[in-house]
Input
Amino acid sequence: MTEIALRGIAKSFGETPVLNGVDLTVRPGEFLTLVGPSGCGKSTLLRILAGLEAADAGQVQIGGQDVTTVRPAARNLAMVFQSYALYPHLSVADNMLTPLKLRDLGRVENLPLIGPLVSRGKRAGLRAEVQRTAEILKIDHLLGRKPGQLSGGQRQRVALGRAMVRQPVAFLMDEPLSNLDAALRVHMRAELSQLHRSLGTTFIYVTHDQAEALTMSDRMAVMMGGDILQLGAPGAIYDDPDTVQVAGFIGSPKINLIPGEVDGAGALRILGYRVPVDMELRNTRGPVTVGLRPEHLTPAANGLAGRVVHRENLGSDVFLHVGVEGLEQPLTMRVPPAQAPAAGAPIRCAAKQDCAMIFAPGGKRLRLPQARTAVVA
Output
């Protein structure tokens, strides 16, 4: 397996900067996801890696070799697009066979009449590879059909199969599940994860859907404004975001971002309530932002007083949207169904132990050694 590295990749379209000197190393065999809002540069970065776009500055390395100016076909990377880009007039088998014929057969061997005669042995080997790949993807019974006769999920598997038959160094996937319905997306997430484990090949996956990034990735890179803001394991980024931008993007429902203030004595206060921590914020004064995820808030006798303005019943959990005087946005709190009050009921919200995240005015996380619980009281 091969390491892939992007060094100082910069790209602008006209006067609009898209990538601002991005550095990224992809470990051999890992599933790495580029996740971020539309326009953050994730698809452009993937296309530069594939060779479909030229970077204004920087270097692309595959296996330690500089391939920045190498044509896409010579990089041995397989691209799976959001649109499946299947040939509608060809069968599934011929769609999967086409990249192998272009790669392994010469000009004469690809001629319509003479080619099949002079390359009979080669073609039999290529068809065997197509059959093997189709069996892995469980689409071997579809090899005789054309794309118009397939469902969305089946077409997605064919697009994956067409990439797999080449046995590439890495699979590059640009939002491949976006065209599927919600239930099929969930199903395909599990299938892609299983496929990655069985193949052991590097997957680099682009999505704006954080659920895909959190459920499938070994690591994920959160991109915004042409930069990678944080790179790490999904659980680590969810539990320990470096910036308020990352905290606000990762998580569904979204994290509660509450205006707070550090007073002259170094005590943290939210809407007049003191939030005790293990140490005084001696080097910080003025406004800060306190982040609390829905599962980190709980009903309590003491806390922020509010009223339930909306309930979302998801069966195993209920999300309460609590309007609190002085806050522009309602707080979101996750509770078990048995503890969920009716809409319009008064309620007090308190933070659970060791859960509050504190962000400086510029958005950077304040790291507090041995920080104790932020309990609003």
